[in-house]
Specification:
Elements (H helix, E strand, L loop, with lengths): L2 H5 L14 E5 L4 H6 L1 H10 L4 E7 L3 H7 L4 E5 L19 E4 L5 H8 L5 E3 L20 H11 L24 E4 L11 H13 L4 E5 L4 H11 L6 E3 L6 H9 L3 E5 L2 H9 L3 E4 L5 H4 L7 E4 L21 H4 L3 H9 L5
Amino acid sequence: MTVHERAGPALTEHRAADGRPSVVVLRALGLGDLLTIVPCLRALRRSLPGHDLVLAAPGRLAAVAVATGLVDRVLPTTAPGRSVPAVLHWEGPPPELAVDLHGNGPPSHRLLQRLRPRRLLAYRHARTPDIPGPEWRDDEHERERWCRLLGWYGIEADPTDLAIAAPACASPAPGAVVVHPGADAGARRWPAERFAAVARALRRAGLDVVVTAGAGEGELARRVARGAGLPQEAVVGGSGDVPFDELCALVAGARCVLVGDTGLAHLATALGTSSVVLFGPVAPSLWGPPPHPRHRVLWCPRAGEDPLRPGDAHASRPDARLLRITVDQVVEAVLGGPDA
């Protein structure tokens, strides 16, 4: 059964100002979160041709959404951390369809219900019993979770269909190893001095290295660069987010991306670039790249620990499993990759 067959009565009052029916997708989170739902956006675009596909997400991700080629426009959201936005500033008629790819509970369900969509696709929850849907599973990879949701409603999505096109602009550092030491929580930040030690070893091996930084991460990136003996010109970004087309060009043209469990890892996957990804409080089986020789995952759990979430992903200090990863392991993973 298709989503149209499930949806009910005529669409006339659910059309956008230009006459197209609207679809609102809620994913008001970060870069990596957005890139994990590319398969869902592609499936919605394929299943609902001629619809106005609107992504409710932070405004700073508008360029990312456009780069996927799957979103018509972004409905900007604001919320602290990973919270559900308090309101969506939707104008015009109610959307034909709303899709909750943000969470599994009443806050995101009710936020979308306030738009009065003709149909809402979401996971089932006891406190929003009027929404049918599949059961949420805590042990599911993020990519597969949202594809399964759409599949339950009759929209087939391939969780491996993650690719986005590389930009037309040239890389500022073609063939370099891109080192990204930042993450939005200390629990997922491998120590700066270890990143610096890896960068030094890679330079000794004859590789070019650049260090990237998001907004507010400039000092961290400069500390890594100084420790590695790199010039300050090797730091890209820091005062603000790197413009997305420039960041895409850098990652697409890189030999390898060395990164923690954060958005740049997902960008490397989307662009088909080799990566070495360091995991700590959360298992790669939940957030890691798809199995492929070009992606190497380093994770050091111990027997008896929670196999999925052994640590607090939002804690302020590096997770114990992250600290078990050694400099030598990382250097070996980078140098031993498919482009070695």
